[in-house]
Amino acid sequence: MTAKGQGRTAFAYLAPALLILGGLLAYPIYQLVLISLYDYGQEQVSGGAPLEFLGLGNYQNLLGDQQFWGVLGQTVAFAAVCVVGTLLVGAFLAILATRVRTWVRMTLFLAALGAWSTPAVAGSTIWLFLFDANFGFVNEVLGIQGFSWTFDKWTAFGLVAAQVIWCSFPFVMVTLYAGIKAIPGEVLEAAALDGASAFRTAWSVMLPLLRPIILVVTIQSIIWDFKVFTQIYVMTNGGGIAGRNLVLNVYAYQQAFAASEYGLGAAIGVVMTVLLLGITMFYLRALKRSGEVL
Amino acid sequence: MRLKTLVAVLGVGAVVACAPVQSGPTSSGTDEQTGQLRVWLFDEVNRGPKEAVVKEAISEFQGKHSGVTVDVQYIQVSSRAERFKAAFSDPKSAPDVAEFGNTDLAGYVSAGGFSELDLGKWDESKDLVPTILDTAKVDGKTYGVPWFVGVRALYYRTDVFTELGLKPPTTLDEIATTAREIRQKKPELIGISAGGKYLFAALPFIWAQGGDLAKSDGGKFTAAIDSAEAKAGVAEYTELIKDDICPPATCAGNGGDASVEAFRAGKAAMTIGGDFNRKSVDASSAAGKYGVVPLPGKDKGSIAPAFAGGNLLGVMKGTQRKTLATEFTQLLASKKYQQKMYTAMGNLPTFTDVQKQVADSDKFLEPFTKTLQSGTKFVPVTPAWAKIEAQAVVPTMLQEIVTGAKNVDTATADAAKTMNAAFTS
């Protein structure tokens, strides 16, 4: 087969996947960008007013808005805390799972799967009940009835972060546990024979081997936690007192979609996509430079 | 090279040629006299009595028009925005007649959803309370018939007031002093359950001081929330959400329902509640030991202007049976059926004479009808208001003040800025 023919065959094999990606990814993004360039409200959607092309007007409005930058900073910090928390808790429990007896491990996994499979709305509501100011179990145990967890900006953020970590650590734990289990026994045995301490084995042998997996779960967590909506929306009642617990997604919903400003909402969506792509690219490049094979 | 050019051409073409989709109702022009009339009404917690009255109206209507059937669908209030947006975008799924909240009117009309109504030929329309009929108008044109109204007044606990030897406040200023005194003597009680998100409780304070949310000049709105009068009202209302009356940690996040809930739970000595809250308060621990007075105004004996909430019945623009739809709207909103709806659901009628009738037969309604007759006010009638409400501009302003994040001057100035941005966009 000629090189050209080979290329054609390869393309034919890839075509179905390309088609699906194009339909599910490229087209929506194309629409998103397109809408973000227009003044596109409910009047325009239902034909009550003519379309107006704004060019970058929506972006100008957005980037000129002080609150947007405040919310963006808050979102980044909140996502960072959630990602670090999720990874730490997940990694700790994964290591624990490799060291304990089967029935303990089974219990741990069942509990984690329970948290994982709880729908976000239900999980958030249950946490709210637990931390209710007057009737909550937590306040009862701590003896601080009447203390509102969701009033203060920082306790509210802390509570939501804890909930987010609670429902996302199982993914990290299960993945890392599988990774640890996949490390060949001979490698660890060799390290032990060389007289490496447990810490040394973990740091110099296991960690490098686990890196690709850690990479995947980190990027996944960043993307998830950056896009948190339900937990903030439900637990802080739409962004907290005076909107001080807003994150980007809830902000986009409130400013744009609830207010039928779809053009502005699309602009926020584009900005978020670009940001997340940027973070992912940066992370991948940094890893590539340090010699990791991807 | 050729491929690159092709891609570039395609890309430019795509951006220039394609615009986001638009669709929508255009008047169909036809006006059929038979067939099925589709009606959307709001679902309620206890829908039975409402449904019975509506069924009665339907059989009367079908009796008069042979070959006409009426199909009623009950839609959820909470998802109404999506339902109506979908109906406006796709006339085929739209009803002919719909019930909707009067604060949604301006947005729906500018979306091209409802058609103008000519009430001139309908005798009963003369008796509609003028300020209530105004809530059905945009730019002087009527787009709906007020079906019922809801107004708020001051609920107070008679047992607490008797025990402490207090009288219900008679001026706006007295509300804070009375509430403070109650909490001082009974620290387990909230003086008055006010909420940081309870817009309709805050508005009477602003209006009573002579302020307003916005001023209209020939249909162009500008924010007035930062005027001296409005600021006085805002300051007076936010003073209630302080530790010595209604602690911010409990009250700052509350909207109307949560504020009334505290009163129902017996945790508050006063609250601002509507005539529509009666049934739920009667089914609570406050039952039998509460009274209601009109929310007092600035001067002794005056009443603070209340927000005229309520629902309208209107005819959709895309309807193919406009005459029938208008007739059914007028029948369901008629004096006869408003009277029946009052008996069934406790909904306050929108006709002056019917209001008097029901108030005479039921003493409980007196403070509410008094409030209605002393004059009510409304939020700015412009599609921008829907946006301002969705963005929670006013609640955010109130919450910023009660948490001390901003003072009254800064918070109102910032809110005015956001509102003006919405008015001019």
From TrEMBL, chain A:
Its main location: membrane. It comes from the Bacteria. PROSITE patterns: ABC_TM1. Keywords: Cell membrane, Membrane, Transmembrane, Transmembrane helix, Transport. The keyword Lipoprotein does not apply. Residues 72-283 form the ABC transmembrane type-1 domain. SUPFAM superfamilies: MetI-like (SSF161098). The chain crosses the membrane at residues 12-30, 76-96, 108-130, 156-180, 201-223, 262-284. Gene3D superfamilies: MetI-like (1.10.3720.10). The keyword Transport applies. Signal peptide: none annotated. It is found in: Cell membrane. PANTHER family: BLL4140 PROTEIN, DIACETYLCHITOBIOSE UPTAKE SYSTEM PERMEASE PROTEIN DASB. This is Sugar ABC transporter permease. It comes from Lentzea pudingi.
From TrEMBL, chain B:
InterPro entries: SBP (IPR006059). SUPFAM superfamilies: Periplasmic binding protein-like II. Gene3D superfamilies: Periplasmic binding protein-like II (3.40.190.10). It comes from the Bacteria. Keywords: Signal, Transport. The keyword Glycosyltransferase does not apply. Residues 1-19 form the signal peptide. PROSITE patterns: PROKAR_LIPOPROTEIN (PS51257). The keyword NADP does not apply. Belongs to the bacterial solute-binding protein 1 family. This is ABC transporter substrate-binding protein. The lineage of its organism: Bacteria, Bacillati, Actinomycetota, Actinomycetes, Pseudonocardiales.
